[in-house]
Design goal:
The protein has 471 residues and is of the alpha/beta class. The protein folds into two domains: 349 residues, 3-Layer(aba) Sandwich (Alkaline Phosphatase, subunit A), CATH 3.40.720.10; 74 residues, Arylsulfatase, C-terminal domain, CATH 3.30.1120.10. 25% of the residues lie in helices and 19% in strands. It has eleven helices and 14 strands. The strands form two sheets. Strands 6-5-4-3-7-1-8-9-2-10 form a ten-stranded mixed β-sheet. Strands 11-12-13-14 form a four-stranded antiparallel β-sheet, with helices on one face. Helix 6 packs parallel to helix 7. 52% of the residues are buried. It binds magnesium ion (MG). Magnesium ion binds next to loops.
Length: 471
């Protein structure tokens, strides 16, 4: 009898103290976002001379997405799109006057926008931003005012605050695939929360320090749900690598940088495993826009895609993307379309919270596709904005170009097409064969889709145009 009572007590106690079931537990989210990484810069996406064993492994264990898009072909608007789930044209983070924010910009992501961090914070998540922000460097625009509990990183691009009297980086880069600039050439600061703690940032050590900060945050928050947004400031030029990686890649310093980022991914994944939280954590890896081609070997490669950063050809806006969550994300090469703007609705769905309902979102919940509940993706259209104009639209396999323009710096000049160009992206991923003449019905359909989309865009205050008053 006594034994039976003891057994009963033991059963009740074990029931009461049982860890929450995985269905009830809110998952953690780790977003690793690179800068100017091209579609062809990872081993898993076909690069022949850059070693990315950690990314290749999580790509094989998870899903490798081959049609994953960003919201813009350049830093600031692309980051705004990822964090808000909205096209940057909807909130003034895309401008005809200036493409991105600069150290003299007074604007930033409007306080009225709702970020992934804010939504998750409302659900008890610990949140951190590590790395490049580029959504406004004045205090009111920094991550800690957009739902992040903490921030550590550079507030804008790593080539800003450039000083006079140094060699021309592009010239040196073209001459030497291993070149790196003196640190003091770029007086970009590191900000901790809202305080400058280092200036100029030591960019040789910055990639490993971002990884360390991310791991520190994960360890500190292992027992509650967390979201960490790790936005590497590289491989945007100027390129720097840590001692352990410098000169190690066959691809020159660009390869050294990617291999260091890859090593960091390995360290983060190993930490999740060590803490026993890997089976409750979704890791997403992608980049903000395509490669900056004028820097030649110091820029990345879009692989088989056309053009690069700044362009609405695929090389500017289609990015390598990997989703990893052992036991949940079904291993696959995913050819359905996805976008950085889909992360907010996807994370909301997984965290059991409604996305903001008082505004237009441009994202979809990708979780049924990630978990293998369906093989048909929710997204069938991509809108390609540049400056404040709609340049192109993809619907299914078809992509129409109303305006074309090449890579930032060296590509073909802007051209408005009276007869739009039409490409079949599945049969012609390199956008080589304009088949507009053969498919007038498709042109009519895509012109109508573009018009409906334009009608839905309300003019907003331009956040990128204004400068800090100088006196
Ligand atoms: Mg970028």
């Amino acid at each position: 009898m006594k034994n039976t009572v003891n057994l009963l007590i033991a059963f009740v106690v074990s029931f009461l103290y049982q860890a929450p079931t995985s269905a009830a537990e809110k998952p953690n989210f780790v977003v690793i976002f690179c800068d100017d990484l091209g579609y062809g810069d990872l081993g898993a996406f076909g690069n022949p001379t850059i070693r990315t064993p950690n990314l290749d492994r999580i790509a094989a264990e998870g899903q490798r997405w081959t049609s994953f898009y960003v919201g813009a072909s350049v830093c600031t608007p692309s980051r705004a799109a990822l964090l808000t789930g909205r096209l940057p044209i909807r909130n003034g983070m895309m401008s005809a006057k200036r493409r991105v924010l600069f150290p003299d910009s007074s604007g930033g992501l409007p306080a009225s926008e709702v970020t992934i961090a804010e939504v998750l914070k409302s659900q008890g998540y610990a949140t951190a931003a590590v790395g490049k922000w580029h959504l406004g460097h004045l205090k009111q625009h920094l991550p800690t005012n957009h739902g992040f509990d903490s921030y550590w990183g550079i507030p804008y691009s790593n080539d800003m605050d450039a000083q006079k009297g140094f060699p021309n980086y592009r010239k040196k880069a073209i001459e030497d695939p291993h070149y790196y600039a003196p640190i003091k050439q770029y007086q970009v600061p590191i900000i901790s929360n809202t305080t400058v703690v280092e200036r100029p940032a030591n960019q040789h050590t910055i990639t490993q320090r971002y990884t360390d900060k991310t791991i520190e945050f994960i360890r500190a928050n292992r027992s509650k749900p967390f979201f960490v947004y790790l936005a590497h400031s590289l491989p945007h030029i100027p390129l720097y690598a840590g001692k352990q990686h410098l000169g190690k890649s066959r691809r020159g310093i660009f390869g050294d940088v990617i291999e260091e980022i890859d090593s960091g991914v390995g360290q983060i994944v190993d930490t999740l495993k060590e803490l026993g939280i890997d089976k409750n954590t979704l890791v997403v890896f992608t980049s903000d826009n395509g490669p900056w081609l004028p820097f030649q070997t110091h820029g990345g490669s879009a692989g088989l895609l056309r053009e690069g950063k700044g362009s609405t050809f695929e090389g500017g806006m289609r990015e390598p993307a990997i989703f990893w969550w052992p036991g949940k994300v079904v291993p696959a090469v995913q050819m359905e379309m996805g976008a950085a703007m889909d992360l907010l609705p996807t994370f909301c769905s997984l965290a059991g919270v409604q996305p903001p309902a008082d505004r237009t979102l441009d994202g979809y919940d990708l979780s049924p596709l990630l978990f293998g509940a369906t093989d048909k993706g929710p997204r069938d259209t991509v809108f390609y904005w540049r400056s404040a104009e709609l340049y192109a639209v993809r619907q299914g396999p078809w992509k129409i170009h109303f305006i074309t323009e090449g890579c930032y710096g060296i590509g073909p000049k802007r051209e408005v097409h009276e007869t739009p160009e039409l490409y079949h992206l599945e049969q012609d991923p390199s956008e080589k064969y304009n088949v507009a003449d053969l498919h007038p019905d498709v042109i009519t359909r895509l012109v109508a889709a573009a018009e409906r989309h334009r009608q839905g865009i309300q003019p907003m205050k331009d956040q990128l145009a204004d400068r800090i008053p100088t006196n």
